[in-house]
Design brief:
Oligomer: single chain
Radius of gyration: 24 Å
Largest sheet: 5 strands, parallel
Strand order of the largest sheet: 2-1-6-5-8
Bound molecules: adenine
Helix content: 25-40%
């Protein structure tokens, strides 16, 4: 899988790409990340990437031209194939002057099957929330292009012309899309086959696959209390068994696999109720909780 990142701060990504799981995945050729400096697609002495907003107001807006040229250098044309005669009359373009000659539009690209077509994403605080489900979806694509916004934003025509989705990593405003792009790359690449040492690990953590999707091992030490099934992960402990006067919970020490499963499940429910009651409600609505789970939650509620 390949990521292309368009940014005015390419240096931001060097530390990120040089450590941990991502570094190993890059070395092993499981994932490729190409970072492109938008200033390389400017044509003035000052390598200008931004300009003042039409209509006035605070801040600066990233100009469309360097981004469009950077995308063209990657072979990415506007996504909308517009017959010449209808360009100006299309609802999408009403009130908008055409910015691309129709000859620049590549029909083959627009008609290519979804898997071979790059997915172009604009990172912005106005985007739809980035979730584990979306990370799974992106992990199934061959190529993802991430456009990092800066300043007040990116000229909206880039979104209109090229982007398949606009993504936000949370309800807060970052000073740019670079951190968000790093988050998207990290969460996505670790789901690729072969990236995590233990293929199963990503299934068993918070927001992992539903319980029913995961083959349980009847014999032997349970790899986990099934999948998180939309709940938060349970707490983990390692040696020593006592630290700073705190003992590792007894069910984890006695080798009773059923007891371990039950304890872990209860911890998931407890943590999800405390930190993300919205997820617990969702799990209830989807019928992902057993009768035992529901009884345990009721007990928690009365605690
Ligand atoms: N750019 C600024 N804030 C952002 C956010 N929350 N998510 C993605 N990109 C952003």
């Amino acid at each position: 899988m390949r990521f292309d990142v368009l940014t005015i701060f390419p240096g931001f990504f060097s530390g990120f790409l040089e450590n941990g799981i991502l570094r190993r995945a890059l070395v092993e050729g499981l994932v490729e990340v190409a970072v492109h400096d938008l200033r390389n697609f400017t044509h003035d002495r000052h390598r200008t990437v931004d300009d003042r907003p039409f209509g006035g107001g605070e801040g600066m807006v990233l100009k469309p031209q360097p981004i469009a040229e950077a995308l063209a250098s990657l072979g990415i044309e506007p996504k909308i194939v517009r017959p010449a005669a209808t360009v100006e009359s299309s609802a999408l373009y009403q009130g908008m002057t055409s910015v691309m000659p129709t000859s620049a539009l590549n029909e083959d690209w627009a008609l290519a099957p979804a898997e071979s077509r790059p997915t172009v994403i604009l990172l912005s605080a106005q985007g739809r929330p980035f979730t584990q489900a979306l990370a799974r979806e992106l992990a199934s694509r061959n190529r993802v292009v991430l456009i990092c916004g800066r300043y007040e934003g990116v000229d909206e025509r880039i979104n209109t012309l090229y982007c398949d989705m606009e993504l936000s990593i949370g309800d807060y405003v970052l000073s740019g899309g670079e951190l968000a792009a790093a988050v998207v790359i990290d969460a996505t690449m670790r789901l690729l086959p072969g990236v995590l040492g233990n293929e199963a690990s990503s299934e068993f953590e918070s927001f992992g696959a539903a319980d029913s999707d995961i083959a349980t091992e009847v014999d032997g030490v349970p790899r986990s209390q099934h999948g998180a099934g939309g709940l938060l992960d349970y707490p983990h402990y390692t040696r020593p068994a006592e630290f700073a006067g705190l003992q590792v919970p007894a069910p984890l020490l006695n080798g009773d696999h059923q007891a371990i499963r039950r304890w872990r499940r209860e911890q998931q429910l407890r943590k999800t109720l405390a930190n993300r009651p919205d997820l617990l409600e969702q799990a209830k609505r989807f019928g992902a909780l057993s009768q035992k789970d529901l009884e345990f939650i009721e007990r928690l509620d009365t605690e």
